[in-house]
Amino acid sequence: MSDVEFERADAGAATTYPAQAGTLRKGGFVVIKNRPCKVVETSVSKTGKHGHAKVHVVAIDIFTGRKLEDICPSTHNTEIPFVTKGDYMLIDIEEDGFCSLMTDDGKTRDDLKCPEGEIGDEMRAAFDDGKDLIVSVQKAMGEESIISFKESNN
């Protein structure tokens, strides 16, 4: 044996799972260009002289909102991301844009930025008005972001 130590590398196996392209449906998730996306449209072309029917997928990146497209044979596997959502209590919004969030078990995390655009503006305004807010955080493929918020019922 050699004295070389190997560094651990994440192969991405735990963040996605395979599924046939022909099973993709509107509202589901898919990985296009190594980005987790939500499917907004699918269409299937007929089989041609070269065999497979092709699936044309139009999807929106769940973190950036960019529109992405892909075409692949319906019988081939495509990657589907594991997408999870969690709710946190909003404690504070720092001047640098980072949010202080509290989990159900009382732990805090300060690693997520307030969303850009309309959702972020509405969230800041509601927080500044003294409302107790619950934020929804979406996680996929090692990336996380705040996607929505609602007023707490407490």
Automatic annotation (TrEMBL):
Keyword field contains Cytoplasm: yes
Gene Ontology terms for molecular function: ribosome binding; RNA binding; translation elongation factor activity
All copies of domain Translation initiation factor 5A C-terminal, residue ranges: 82-150
Post-translational modification: eIF-5A seems to be the only eukaryotic protein to have a hypusine residue which is a post-translational modification of a lysine by the addition of a butylamino group.
Keyword Zinc-finger in record: no
GO CC terms: cytoplasm
One of the protein's GO biological processes: positive regulation of translational termination
Tree of life domain: Eukaryota
Entry keyword set: Cytoplasm, Elongation factor, Hypusine, Protein biosynthesis, RNA-binding
Localization (cell): Cytoplasm
PROSITE patterns in the record: IF5A_HYPUSINE (PS00302)
Function per UniProt: Translation factor that promotes translation elongation and termination, particularly upon ribosome stalling at specific amino acid sequence contexts. Binds between the exit (E) and peptidyl (P) site of the ribosome and promotes rescue of stalled ribosome: specifically required for efficient translation of polyproline-containing peptides as well as other motifs that stall the ribosome. Acts as ribosome quality control (RQC) cofactor by joining the RQC complex to facilitate peptidyl transfer during CAT tailing step.
Similarity remark: Belongs to the eIF-5A family.
Protein name listed in UniProt: Eukaryotic translation initiation factor 5A
Organism: Carpediemonas membranifera
